[in-house]
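Why does residue order matter? Because the sequence determines the fold. Keep that principle in mind as you read this record.
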Amino acid sequence: MSTPPSTFPIKRQRLFDQVAQHLEAMILSGEVGVGDPLPSERELMERFGVGRPAVREALLWLNKKGLISVSAGERARVVEPDPSELLEHLSGAALLFASTPRGMQQFQQTRLFTEVALAREACRWTSADDLKRLEQLLRDNEASAGNMETFARTDDAFHFGIASLAHNPLIDALYRSVLSVLQNQRYTSLQHHDALHAAIDCHTRIFDAIAARDPDRAEQVMRTHLTNVESFYWDVRGKPARHPPDAAADASQAAEKPRKKTN
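Structure:
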């Protein structure tokens, strides 16, 4: 008895999917530029040979993807991409992923890689005005040490201040997204008895390294700081942090013997 041939089902595309794909190709090719209106609904119906419902569903889908804006009584227009919107639709899935130990560890690792690079590059990018703004964020954070909620908020502001030195809206959006996902880590790690002192000490040394245009020192202190934060988080959670041996040792030493604050 012969074996029946394998089957490969063909997915049937809905009409609005096909219309949306054609319109997206028009936008991405530059046929319709940023700020330009798309053809009217009637023109699109005639062009694609479909009814109004298919056209409207396609426009709503493109609007959801952030490619066009749709307003009642007006023709849809191609919009300038907003980096924050590019990442917004990932937030729900990211929070779910970070709710598992493995997901949290991978987000922590992503933050470490990102911020270490940002601290290093900040030594090249930073202007005198940038340094003044960053120093004020540092002082605000130091002054809030008596209020944990305010300290967490100003801690975020200091780190975001470093990320913003790149003057890159996509980096800003990516960093805000990562910080949002790691909100639980922030408050949990600060419950550790060494966390506050270690954070203030490292923040000061990070700022000093950036001000001195010392990329190696900025990278090393930022790595130590974020390794500390991760270690404190898992210690409070009652689980070991998973770091390479040298990073773990560096974090342990920094936590046990934090340097004195420098002016």
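The domain at 15-81 is CATH 1.10.10.10 (Arc Repressor Mutant, subunit A).
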